[in-house]
Structure formats: structure tokens, C-alpha cells
């Protein structure tokens, strides 16, 4: 059986389900056998092992299958039942499918019906919504239909006028900035007339502000601090709209404050041209895109700004660049440049005007009034002002929101595609706009009502603001009265605030307003009065400074204040500053002590005295030599004196003694020889000294100066110092020289007289017409004369005062005097002081300057030390005003010297060249230069008026001279222009003229044929005025009033008048005809016709005195008024041989302030309440010109 080929297949397909328990039990004995296992079976045969395994598996299967068979039987049963059930289910499902098919058919019909219904419903809803949208649009836009229709029509018309409007707007932005509101209006009206004449359409009564900027923006500017007057709004418009960067003329800093607030959120950088980081600030703002404010510039701009101002930007990709100096900087979006100046009327060059947009931001009366109203309300009703500001902000915000909504709505309307009723977002925008508009309108109505209430309350205080504004502008105008009356808006606002905070409080508004007005006006008046009183004091530095500044300022700042307000008192305050800083001893003049100087020297050290006017140390050196019992040999150097000097030096070196070489500057080569002798001489006596006196000389040997002791013997400044030096050379024995009681006071009087005549020199022409070099020799000779006179005096007759006066006034001092009026002054001094009154107790030269009643030298020294350190000009016989010019000039000289020795740093130049400046000046002068005189017309005019009349001869001579000047001026100016252009060669003469004109000096070639003047401007103005007088004379006949300053030869003019009068009276001789005068009360404009005889003259200035116009007499000068313009003077001639009335003061007339013989014109007589000597000492004179 196992061999059967199908055995394995039979085993695999064995019907396992037939195995029963019996069969398994039969197999059990086999299973229990020991060798019936797999290991044994494998050893026998592998197939046996497989069969053994199969039998065990079948037995095991049976044990399991016993439980499965019932289940299988049940399964068969159930499957049969299932089959029957499934057949039933199939029948049911078939029936169900048929029913569902019927349902789907019905449902499809239903769905179609529902969809149709929905379509109809949606269509109805859409139609309803469109109806509602249309209704909304109609309701929302219906109100705008009329306005928009009209606007569309207006826009269409405006398009036609746009050319003219844009032209006016651009012209306004480009040209109107520098002008005030009135001129701007006139300028725009002129442009409108031009457009009208050329048929260019424009809007009538065009409001450029409304055209270029929205009201909401203007309101925003106002919140930022911009005054809300029309001019300020225009200025802000130009600042923001102009293409050029703005340059604000902003003396009250209104514009600067607005810009600071406007750019506060943009990181505004503030700087100035002299700031050490200016370039850094500029570069940072350019590269970071920040606004830059350059404040408080002068009349020039830094050339480094040129490329920025001209916007010479270089496009590099998407970035712009600009060259700043030698560096290239990026220009980022957001950069803006503002420039401000505090100068009220700056003369900017055309170049600056072209590069910038110059805008006049000067405060206006209306603008200031509104500002002041805000300040007073802020302090008086702060809650009201806060409410007003909040309300204003709310209105601005609402207006801006309305504008934004309207803009958005119009944009949506313009951009909507298809039907408007389909754009739901548009409807939403419209709804929001309408709702917001209603809310804003309501708010604006409420705001308007609230503002009305606030304004009513504010207007109660309008009077205070108006008064304040008027007062400020009155104060500003005071600078026209006196240039020192300069006040800032900041100062005024402090006064204004004080008038509110410090004035009496009351709850009654009208009373409160009146109190503020009264306090404000009085405060300003009082403040002005305090400063005016202080300013007009003779010595303001000795007085308390007003407004608490006396305590607030230290000594140096007081010096700055005095320098600004009273330049003539600078030196006095400077002395206080030095004494306060260094000690009192530094305020005292240093008196030369030759004894100390000699002690410091040794034989090889020369002693050099640098000479000055009125100083000669020779007598003091001689006295010192005598006191030391040393031989002194002296020689005054000059041509041929070298041999004498050389012998003196060699002798003294060998045998001892001093040598004095006077005026060594006259023998400079010998000075070098002296230096060589001092260095090379091997042995010299220990007592040898060499003294040299010299004037300042640039060629003086430097080696000699470096080895020498140098000293100067400057005349002491002031009476105390001069008297102190004089009495330093007087001993007690000298004072006891004479037993006569007149000797000490006479000695003191001569010393005082010597001091006075020397000190008057510092006052210039007021002191002496010619600055004479009175020196110690004059004093010594005068004292010697007094000694001799007292020695020869008859005690019974006493001093011969006429003799003393003559010797002092005509010989000792008078011998130097060359000018007649100076001689008159000198004699007047001697006559006033040297008389019996001098010897009486209590005599005073001037208040506080007595003659000490003592014979003790120390008594004199003590009294001299008690004299004031500074002297009033009245001590010298002059008015207090005389000191002003002297002090100003002296202070200016000292300050200029201080500046000249300061370290100087080089810097880059910029701006116009000298040639371009002079070229422009020459063009301007040529434009104003009168035409040459037509000789035929002049001859015809002279023939008409009488060619041989003396006055007409003078006219012909004057015309000839002015013609020569005009010709030379024109020639020079034309040649200069050609030379600058390069057409002709620039000669040395033209170069000299160019340099002179650049420095505002008069070219030498003009000066030779014309007249002196302070500056070229004054000279040219006088040229035009002189020419106008002569032309008027030629064309219209003899003038009613003559301008005497305008004559080349005023003496000839007066002589011609005398000749005219002499010829008019038969029998009169010219020698006996003298000039007389009458001081009228008329000004030039008051006289419509000339006198029957003589002439009226005008344009004279009185110096040293003032004129009482009522009486026609001269009186004392007004404080700080140096010159007074005279009314018309009537000069005529009479035939007389009698002398002058001694009660009249003979007043000289000079053409210029330099009172020399060449400038002398003549004299006129003044009536006076004083003795004429008083005015002689005052130095009173008339000047044709004070420049």
C-alpha cells in the first residue's frame, strides 16, 4: 500500500470526517508503545516517521473534529434556510428598487419645482435689493447732484482759466516771498492786469492760498503755532510749496517756532553755520532723510550749501546723490532744508535770492494781536482757552475726516465697474460717509455754537491784545528815533505776561481789562523810561543798571552791556573789569621812574626811550645824572652828528659817564654802529650808560632793540596822572625856592595849565585845531619865567597878570601855536585862570579841582592823589559830549588792537570776487552818474542870468570843477569795467582804484580833484547832491536857499555875495563891507523865495553847543548829541568900519570836521547868554559836513 504511487495523495485526501472514536481507540496501544516515536521512526525510515506523524495528527484532528462536526451540520442546515431567505430578500429588493425608481422620478420633479421657486425668489430679492440700493444711491447722492453738477461745470470753466491761475500761483511762489502783504497784493494785481492785456484767461479775485492748500491743512498749521493772519498763511504756503528751499527773514522767530513744531515728529535737526558740527549735521540729514534747520544766519551762506540749495542731485540707480564740499552724500526721501535769519532787513545777494526762496516772516500787527489774545486768555481763563484749543483740534480732525470720506467716495464712484447698484462696498462707503457726515455736521454745528460762546468770552479781552500789539510795534519803531532802542518780541512778551500776572486781580472782567491795559502801558513806558534815563546818564557805568541787571550781571557782562549801549564809556567800565579781576593797582597808570630803570641796567645795556607826542625824557635823564653826580653828554642826531656821537661814546666808555643820543631814528646806520661798539668793546667803565631816544621806525635795528631796556615816556592820561608826574619832578627845596606867597599857587596853576593844554589834544579838533606838541620844555620855560617875574616883582604892585598871560599865551606856549582860533583859545585860558582870583582861597579851576593851600610838597602830592581818576571834559572847558567821540575812538583802537593780536585761523573762501563786487558797484554808479554838462546850455544859462555877476562867475567855476569830477569818475568806471572784462589792460592806476572801491575808499585820482569824505558811499552821494544844486541853478535860476557844503570854494561864494551887495550900493567899498548874519527859525522847505539881498544857506552843523531856536542864541549841547543841524542862516553884508560886538561869539565855519586852515570858510556871530569866552573854551564851530 505504501508503494502505491497514490499513497501520499490518498493520505492527503483521506476523509478525515469518517474517523470515529473506535478507530482512535484501536490506535491508542500503538501510541503508547515506547518505540512509537519520531526519533525511532526516523532511524528506521523517514517515510515511516512521516506516517507515524500522520497517524498522531489524525488522532488529534479527531479529538478536535468531534466538537466541530455538530457545528458543521448546523451550518448546513442554516445555509439551506439562508438560501430560502435570500431568495425572499432578492424578490423584496427587486420590488424595492422598482419603488425607489418611482421615488427618484418623483423627487426629480420636486427638485425642479423647488429650484424654479428658488430662482424666482432670488430674482425677486435681487430686484428688491437693487431697488433699495438705487433708493440709497438716490437718497445719498441726490443731495450732491446740484453741487457736483455745478462743480463739474466750474471745473470745466476752471480748466479754461488754469493757464492764467497756474501762472499767477507760480509767480506768487517764486517772487512774492520777500515782500509784505500789501506789496504782494499789488504785485498779483499787476500780473492780473498783464494777463488781461494779453487775453490770457484767469480767475477773477483768485485766492492763491485757497487754490494751493486746503483749509484743514491751514488749521493744522495754526495748531502747530503758525499765526493765523493772511500773511503768515501765505508764508507757510510758500515754505511748503516752493521748489527752492526756504530762507525765512524771521526777526521774531515766529517762523522758526512753527517749523520746530511742524517737524517735531520728523527728528528735526537744528544747527547754525558756525556750529562746529555743521557739516556733520548737514551730511547726516541728507543721508538719513531728516529735516535740517539752519538758524540765525547772517548775510552770507556757506558755499558748501551751493549744490544742496541748487538741488544739483545726481541720479545713481534709485538713489539720488549730492556733492557736499569734497564728499558725496546720499539724498534720502524726507530731507528738507530750512534757513532762518534774525536780521530784519538783510541785504542778500542776487545769488542767494536765486538759490533760496526768501520769505518775510516778520510778525504782523493782526497776527501778534491774535497771539497776545491767546496768551491773555491762557492766563486769565485757562479753561476757556483749553476748551477752545480742544474744540479747534476736533473741528480740524472732523474736517479732515469728511474730506477723506468724500475723496474715498468719489474714488469708488470713479473706479466701479458695471452697474453702481451692484457694488455693495460702494453702498457701505456711502452709508458710512452719510452717517459720519451727519455726525460731523452735528459736531460742527455744536462746535460753531461753542466757538461762538468762547469767542464772545475771548473778545472781552481783545482790547488787551490790541493794545499790546500796538505797543509792540510802537516800541519797534523807536529804533528809528535812536538805533540803540532795539527790542525783541521775546522781551516784549515777558513785559506783556508781567502786566497780566503782576497787575491787580479782580473778578469783574471790564475792571480787570482796564487794570491790565493801564499796567501794561505803564510797565512799558516805565521800562523804557528807566533804560532811557540810565542811557542818558553822563556815566551810566557808575549807575545801577535797570530791571535788576545790576545784580544779575557780573563785571564782564556789564562791560559787554556798556560796550553795546554806550561805546564811549567802554574804557571806564574796562578799567573796573581789570581792577575787579586783577586788583586795584592795575587800574592806576604806571609813572616812569628812571631811577629804577637805571638800576636794572649795566654798561653794555642801552636804554632806549620810544618817543610819543608831548614826551621827552631828556630833562628827566639830565636831572637823574645830576643827582648821581655823573657826567652826561648829549647830542641830537642828524646829518653829520655821527662823528660827535662816536667821540662821546668812546670817551665815556673809557672814562665813565652817560651819553644821550636824541632822535637816533634820524641816523639808523649809526644805530647799528652803536650796537657793534657795545658788543665789540672789550673793556668799558662801570659807570658808562648810553641813552637813546627814537620814534617808532620799521627799519630800526632789531638786534639793538633786543639787547636794550626799552621804556616809553607817554604823557600820562588824565589830570591826576599828569599832575602826579609833574610833581614827581619837584622837590621840597624847589617848592621853597621863593618866599613869595604867590609862588606855590602859581607853580600849581602853570602845572595845571600845562596839563590842560596837553590833555585837550585827545579831543581832536574840538580841543585844538592843530595837535601841538606841548612838552616838558614849555613847562620848564614857563616856570622859569614865573620865578624870574616873582624875583623882579614889586611886592606892592603884586603880580602883573597881563604880563603873565602874554608870556604864557603868546610866547612860551603860544610860540608853538599857528592857528588863529587856537591862539584865541590859549589866550582865553590864560585870561580866565591867571588873574587875582587865582590867589583867593576857594578858587577852583572847575568843581573839585582847587589850588591846594599849602607849602608842603606832600600836601600837594596827597591832594593830587585825591583827584578823580577820570576827568569830565568840562574840566578842560569842553562840554561833556566832547568825551564821547574821544572815548569811542580810543575804545575802538584798543579793541581793534586786541582783535589784531588774537590767533587767526585760515579758512576757505567763497562768494564773489573783488572784481565782480567792484564791477557791480561800477555799473550801479554809472547808472546813477549824471550826464556831462552841455557847455552851450551852461553858457546860455549864464548869459540869461548875467555872465559877469560875481555869483554867476562862482557858478561857472563850480560847474567847471564838477564837470571835471564827473568826467574823471565816468572815465575811471568805464575803464574799470573794460579792464575787469579783459578788454583793456588793468593798469596800476586802475588796480589802485579797484582796491580803493572794494574797500569803500575814494580812489586817489578822484580825491585829487574833489573833496574828502569818510567813505566812497558818502562821497558819491555828495557828488550827486552837488551836481543837483548846480543843475538846478543853471536851469531854474538862483536858488532860494544855498547848500554851502556843495561848493568847492565856499569862501569864494561868500566873497561873491559881498561883491554883489557892494555893487548894489553906490559908494560902498569892498574893503569896508563885512558879513553879518541872522539865525532864522526856518527850515529849507519853508522858504519859497530868496532874500532881496544876501543869501540863505542851509546844511550847516553846530558842534560843541546847541541852538535855542526861539531866541536864536547858542546854549549848552543836549546830552549825547554831538552835532546839531542848524536852521537856515541869512548871511548878508553891511558897510561898516566898527569892530565886532564883544558880546557876540565869533564862530568859525569849517568845511569838514578837521579844522585846518585849508578847511576854513569864514565865521558868523552868535548871540549868547554866556560870556563868549565860555564858547571859545567849548570849541564851538560850524561844520559844512560831519562825515
From TrEMBL:
Q: Which residues form the Dynein heavy chain C-terminal domain?
A: 889-1184
Q: Does the keyword Amino-acid biosynthesis apply?
A: no
- Ranges for the Dynein heavy chain region D6 P-loop domain? 603-712
Which superkingdom heads the taxonomic lineage of this protein's source? Eukaryota
The GO cellular component terms are: axoneme; dynein complex; microtubule
Q: Where in the cell is it found?
A: Cytoplasm, Cytoskeleton, Cilium axoneme
Does this UniProt record's set of keywords contain Repeat?
yes
From which residue to which does any coiled coil extend? 75-123
Which keywords describe this protein according to UniProt? Answer: ATP-binding, Cell projection, Cilium, Coiled coil, Cytoplasm, Cytoskeleton, Dynein, Microtubule, Motor protein, Nucleotide-binding, Repeat
According to its UniProt entry, one GO biological process term is:
microtubule-based movement
Q: Pfam families from the entry?
A: AAA_9, AAA_lid_11, Dynein_C, Dynein_heavy, MT
GO molecular function list: ATP binding; dynein intermediate chain binding; dynein light intermediate chain binding; minus-end-directed microtubule motor activity
Query: In what residue span(s) does the Dynein heavy chain ATP-binding dynein motor region domain sit?
Result: 220-440
Dynein heavy chain AAA lid domain location: 743-882
> Residue ranges of the Dynein heavy chain coiled coil stalk domain?
4-191
PANTHER family, A to Z: DYNEIN AXONEMAL HEAVY CHAIN 5, DYNEIN HEAVY CHAIN 1, AXONEMAL-LIKE PROTEIN
User: What is the designated name of this protein?
Assistant: Dynein heavy chain 5, axonemal
Amino acid at each position: 500500500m505504501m508503494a502505491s504511487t497514490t499513497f501520499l495523495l490518498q493520505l492527503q485526501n483521506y476523509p478525515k470526517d469518517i474517523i470515529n472514536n473506535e478507530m482512535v481507540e484501536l490506535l491508542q496501544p500503538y501510541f503508547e508503545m515506547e518505540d512509537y516515536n519520531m526519533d525511532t521512526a526516523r532511524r528506521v525510515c523517514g517515510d515511516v516517521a512521516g506516517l507515524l506523524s500522520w497517524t498522531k495528527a489524525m488522532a488529534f484532528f479527531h479529538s478536535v473534529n468531534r466538537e466541530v462536526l455538530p457545528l458543521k451540520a448546523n451550518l448546513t442546515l442554516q445555509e439551506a434556510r439562508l438560501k430560502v431567505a435570500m431568495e425572499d430578500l432578492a424578490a423584496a429588493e427587486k420590488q424595492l428598487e422598482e419603488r425607489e425608481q418611482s421615488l427618484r422620478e418623483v423627487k426629480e420633479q420636486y427638485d425642479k419645482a423647488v429650484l424654479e421657486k428658488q430662482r424666482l425668489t432670488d430674482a425677486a430679492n435681487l430686484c428688491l435689493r437693487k431697488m433699495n440700493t438705487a433708493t440709497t444711491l438716490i437718497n445719498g447722492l441726490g443731495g450732491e447732484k446740484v453741487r457736483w453738477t455745478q462743480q463739474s461745470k466750474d471745473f470745466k470753466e476752471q480748466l479754461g482759466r488754469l493757464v492764467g491761475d497756474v501762472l499767477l500761483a507760480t509767480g506768487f511762489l517764486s517772487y512774492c516771498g520777500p515782500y509784505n502783504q500789501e506789496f504782494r497784493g499789488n504785485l498779483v494785481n499787476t500780473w492780473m492786469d498783464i494777463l488781461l492785456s494779453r487775453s490770457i484767461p484767469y480767475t477773477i479775485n483768485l485766492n492763491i492760498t485757497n487754490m494751493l492748500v486746503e483749509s484743514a491743512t491751514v488749521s493744522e498749521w495754526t495748531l502747530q503755532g503758525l499765526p493765523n493772519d493772511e500773511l503768515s498763511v501765505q508764508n507757510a504756503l510758500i515754505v511748503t510749496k516752493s521748489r527752492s528751499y526756504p530762507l525765512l527773514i524771521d526777526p521774531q522767530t515766529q517762523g522758526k517756532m512753527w517749523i520746530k513744531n511742524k517737524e517735531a515728529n520728523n527728528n528735526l535737526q537744528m544747527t547754525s553755520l558756525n556750529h562746529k558740527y555743521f557739516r556733520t549735521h548737514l551730511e547726516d540729514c541728507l543721508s538719513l532723510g531728516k529735516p535740517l534747520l539752519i538758524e540765525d544766519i547772517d548775510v552770507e551762506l556757506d558755499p558748501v550749501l551751493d549744490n544742496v540749495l541748487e538741488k544739483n542731485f545726481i541720479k545713481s540707480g534709485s538713489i539720488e546723490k549730492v556733492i557736499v564740499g569734497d564728499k558725496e552724500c546720499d539724498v534720502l526721501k524726507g530731507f528738507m532744508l530750512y534757513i532762518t535769519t534774525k536780521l530784519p532787513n538783510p541785504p542778500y545777494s542776487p545769488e542767494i535770492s536765486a538759490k533760496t526762496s526768501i520769505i518775510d516772516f516778520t510778525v504782523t500787527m493782526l497776527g501778534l494781536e491774535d497771539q497776545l489774545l491767546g496768551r491773555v486768555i491762557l492766563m486769565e481763563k485757562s479753561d476757556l482757552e483749553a476748551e477752545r484749543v480742544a474744540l479747534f483740534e476736533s473741528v480740524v480732525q472732523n474736517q479732515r475726516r469728511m474730506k477723506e470720506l468724500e475723496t474715498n467716495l468719489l474714488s469708488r464712484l470713479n473706479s466701479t465697474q458695471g452697474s453702481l447698484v451692484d457694488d455693495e462696498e460702494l453702498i457701505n462707503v456711502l452709508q458710512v460717509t452719510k452717517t459720519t457726515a451727519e455726525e460731523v455736521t452735528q459736531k460742527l454745528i455744536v462746535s460753531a455754537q461753542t466757538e461762538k460762546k468762547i469767542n464772545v468770552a475771548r473778545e472781552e479781552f481783545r482790547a488787551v491784545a490790541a493794545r499790546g500789539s500796538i505797543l509792540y510795534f510802537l516800541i519797534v519803531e523807536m529804533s528809528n528815533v535812536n538805533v540803540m532802542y532795539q527790542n525783541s518780541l521775546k522781551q516784549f512778551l515777558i513785559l506783556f505776561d508781567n502786566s497780566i500776572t503782576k497787575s491787580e486781580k479782580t473778578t469783574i472782567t471790564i475792571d480787570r481789562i482796564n487794570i491790565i491795559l493801564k499796567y501794561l502801558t505803564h510797565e512799558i513806558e516805565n521800562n523804557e523810561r528807566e533804560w532811557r534815563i540810565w542811557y542818558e546818564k553822563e556815566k551810566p557805568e557808575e549807575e545801577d543798571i535797570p530791571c535788576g541787571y545790576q545784580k544779575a550781571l557780573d563785571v564782564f557782562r556789564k562791560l559787554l552791556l556798556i560796550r553795546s549801549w554806550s561805546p564811549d564809556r567802554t574804557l571806564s567800565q574796562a578799567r573796573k573789569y581789570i581792577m575787579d579781576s586783577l586788583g586795584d593797582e592795575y587800574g592806576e597808570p604806571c609813572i616812569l621812574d628812571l631811577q629804577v630803570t637805571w638800576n636794572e641796567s649795566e654798561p653794555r645795556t642801552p636804554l632806549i626811550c620810544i618817543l610819543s607826542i608831548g614826551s621827552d625824557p631828556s630833562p628827566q635823564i639830565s636831572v637823574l645824572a645830576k643827582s648821581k653826580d655823573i657826567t652826561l653828554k648829549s647830542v641830537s642826531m642828524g646829518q653829520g652828528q655821527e662823528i660827535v656821537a662816536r667821540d662821546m661814546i668812546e670817551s665815556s666808555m673809557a672814562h665813565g659817564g652817560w651819553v644821550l643820543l636824541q632822535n637816533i631814528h634820524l641816523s639808523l646806520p649809526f644805530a647799528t654802529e652803536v650796537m657793534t661798539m657795545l658788543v665789540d668793546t672789550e673793556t668799558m667803565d662801570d659807570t658808562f650808560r648810553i641813552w637813546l631816544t627814537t620814534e617808532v621806525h620799521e627799519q630800526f635795528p632789531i638786534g639793538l632793540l633786543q639787547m636794550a631796556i626799552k621804556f616809553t615816556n607817554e604823557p600820562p592820561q588824565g589830570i591826576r596822572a599828569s599832575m602826579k608826574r609833574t610833581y614827581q619832578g619837584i622837590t621840597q627845596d624847589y617848592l621853597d625856592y621863593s618866599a613869595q606867597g604867590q609862588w606855590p599857587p602859581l607853580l600849581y596853576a602853570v602845572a595845571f595849565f600845562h596839563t590842560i593844554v596837553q590833555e585837550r589834544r585827545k579831543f581832536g579838533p574840538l580841543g585844538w585845531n592843530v595837535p601841538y606838541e606841548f612838552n616838558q620844555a614849555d613847562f620848564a620855560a614857563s616856570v622859569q619865567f614865573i620865578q624870574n617875574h616873582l624875583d623882579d616883582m614889586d611886592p606892592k604892585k603884586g603880580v602883573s597878570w597881563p604880563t603873565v598871560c602874554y608870556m604864557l599865551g603868546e610866547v612860551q606856549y603860544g610860540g608853538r601855536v599857528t592857528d588863529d582860533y587856537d591862539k584865541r583859545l590859549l589866550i582865553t585860558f590864560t585870561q580866565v585862570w591867571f588873574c587875582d582870583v587865582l590867589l583867593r582861597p576857594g578858587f577852583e579851576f572847575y568843581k573839585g579841582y582847587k589850588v591846594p593851600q599849602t607849602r608842603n610838597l606832600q600836601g600837594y602830592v596827597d591832594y593830587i592823589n585825591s583827584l578823580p581818576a577820570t576827568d569830565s571834559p568840562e574840566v578842560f572847558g569842553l562840554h561833556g559830549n566832547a568825551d564821547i567821540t574821544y572815548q569811542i575812538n580810543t575804545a575802538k583802537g584798543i579793541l581793534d588792537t586786541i582783535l589784531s593780536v588774537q590767533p587767526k585761523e585760515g579758512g576757505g573762501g567763497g562768494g564773489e570776487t573783488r572784481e565782480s563786487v567792484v564791477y557791480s558797484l561800477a555799473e550801479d554808479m554809472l547808472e546813477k552818474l549824471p550826464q556831462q554838462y552841455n557847455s552851450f546850455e551852461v553858457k546860455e544859462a549864464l548869459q540869461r542870468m548875467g555872465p559877469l555877476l560875481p555869483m554867476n562867475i562862482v557858478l561857472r567855476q563850480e560847474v567847471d570843477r564838477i564837470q571835471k569830477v564827473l568826467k574823471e569818475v565816468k572815465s575811471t568806471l568805464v575803464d574799470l569795467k573794460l579792464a575787469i572784462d579783459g578788454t583793456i589792460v588793468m593798469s596800476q592806476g586802475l588796480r589802485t582804484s579797484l582796491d580803493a572801491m572794494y574797500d569803500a575808499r575814494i580812489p586817489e585820482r578822484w580825491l585829487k580833484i574833489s573833496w574828502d569824505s569818510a567813505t566812497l558811499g558818502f562821497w558819491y552821494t555828495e557828488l550827486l547832491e552837488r551836481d543837483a544844486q548846480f543843475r538846478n541853478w543853471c536851469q531854474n535860476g538862483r536858488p532860494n536857499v544855498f547848500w554851502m557844503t556843495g561848493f568847492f570854494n565856499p569862501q569864494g561864494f561868500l566873497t561873491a555875495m559881498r561883491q554883489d551887495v557892494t555893487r548894489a550900493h553906490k559908494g560902498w567899498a569892498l574893503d569896508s563891507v563885512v558879513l553879518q548874519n541872522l539865525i532864522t527859525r526856518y527850515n529849507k522847505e519853508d522858504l519859497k523865495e530868496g532874500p532881496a539881498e544876501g543869501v540863505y544857506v542851509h546844511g550847516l552843523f553846530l558842534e560843541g553847543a546847541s541852538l535855542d531856536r526861539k531866541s536864536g542864541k547858542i546854549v549848552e549841547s543836549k546830552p549825547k548829541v554831538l552835532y546839531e543841524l542848524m536852521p537856515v542862516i541869512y548871511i548878508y553884508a553891511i558897510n561898516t568900519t566898527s569892530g565886532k560886538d564883544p558880546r557876540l561869539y565869533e564862530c568859525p565855519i569849517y568845511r569838514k570836521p578837521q579844522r585846518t586852515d585849508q578847511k576854513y570858510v569864514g565865521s558868523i556871530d552868535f548871540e549868547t547868554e554866556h560870556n563868549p569866552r565860555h564858547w571859545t573854551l567849548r570849541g564851538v564851530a560850524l561844520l559844512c559836513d560831519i562825515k
